[in-house]
Amino acid sequence: MESSKYSALGVDISKKGIEALKAIVDNLFPGSFCSIVRDPDFPDTGIVLHEDGVGTKSIVAYLYYKETGEKKWFETLATDVVAMNVDDVACVGGVPLVFSDYIAINPFKVNKEDLLSSLASGFSSVFSTLESLGFKVLFGGGETADLPDIVRTFDLSGSLVARVKLNDIVTGAEISPGDPIVGLRSSGKSKYEKYENSGIMCNGLTLARHCLLSKMYVEKYPEVSSPEVKDYFGRFKLDTSIPELGMSVGEALLSPTRIYLPIALEVLKKTRVKAMVHNTGGGLTKSLRIGNNIKYIKNNLPEPDPIFKLILSECKEEPREIYRSFNMGIGFEIIVEKGSEDEVLSISEKFGVEAQVIGYCEKSSIGNSVVIESKFGKFMYP
């Protein structure tokens, strides 16, 4: 059953209706994490064209901007939109080539020059980081649209072109019973990140904002919430410091999405990978879309990070639904053949990202399913 609180905010986790579009996609490998088409000029090569955005995380940056007058709060959104794309294509083994952005603005609410100059700085930083890790991603420009009749504040999304040899594509079709699931943490500070990360990434922000932030923000800036839904009902301001978080509530919500690309592609070079999953929309149930008749048993999950515990406490949402909405501390999963899990753990540790075996795969006779065993209970999806 869909989360009543989240659906009441206008968010459909199950993305009803998407089947109509999936039916017309030219995908060489149905069931793979990303759609792949054959390069017409190089028949042994696949092309991945992927699109994703920062979602309503942009509203957190917008609130900081309105409260402080400082444009710097937009900058890390560039990391978010790049990470959401490069980590998704990494799940099929894609090497990113060219990125472009799409920025829709309500110019009556956001100063366009402030937003664009801050994002330019952010893009320069994240592409420089990727280059230092061995990935030269070209920035092919994009589109900026003034849409005051459509957009309440602003929206940021991006498109990425990636390339992969068809013989090297990771599809999930070879998952076998007993294969271990290695989970990579979404929180902490990797060797290529500047700051500690709360782990929230880019999903669940609508629910997180409404249940954590004070209704004073909607009263001051009504554009940050739809009039059809309940106002913010939280107890906190952006700058409220909570010791368990190690940062303010606003900083936790704005923590940039981790880039897993270098870890994923190095693992691919060193061992046989069965599947990879970027735990974005769908949270820890994202693996439902990978493989055929597989039961994913996740019975060794780490303690959820403080931001997720805070959301669970303040939202009064059923834990079963929280695990569908948030990554709960595991941002990326790598499924390998038994005996290869130590290699994955070693590579992740080399980059300063915590990892652990969080479960294993079983055969299922009723389609894909996910079983989560947690301190809050045992849940089965769908």
Along the chain, the helix and strand elements come as HHEEHHEHEEEHHEEHHEEHHEHEEE
CATH architecture assignment: 2-Layer Sandwich
Shape field: globular
Low-confidence stretches: none
Query: What is the overall number of helices?
Result: 12
CATH fold field value: 60s Ribosomal Protein L30, Chain: A
CATH top level is Alpha Beta
Strand order of the largest sheet: 9-11-6-12-10-13-14
Largest sheet: 7 strands, mixed
What structural category do the secondary elements indicate? alpha+beta
Strand content bin: 15-25%
Report the average pLDDT across residues. 94
Indicate the percent of residues in helices: 25-40%
Number of domains: 1
Radius of gyration: 20 Å
Going by CATH, what is the homologous superfamily?
PurM-like, N-terminal domain
Cα-to-Cα separation, first versus last residue: 8 Å
Number of strands: 14
Describe this structure in words.
With 382 residues, the protein is α+β, with helices and mostly antiparallel strands. The chain has one domain: 60s Ribosomal Protein L30, Chain: A. It has twelve helices and 14 strands. The mean pLDDT is 94.
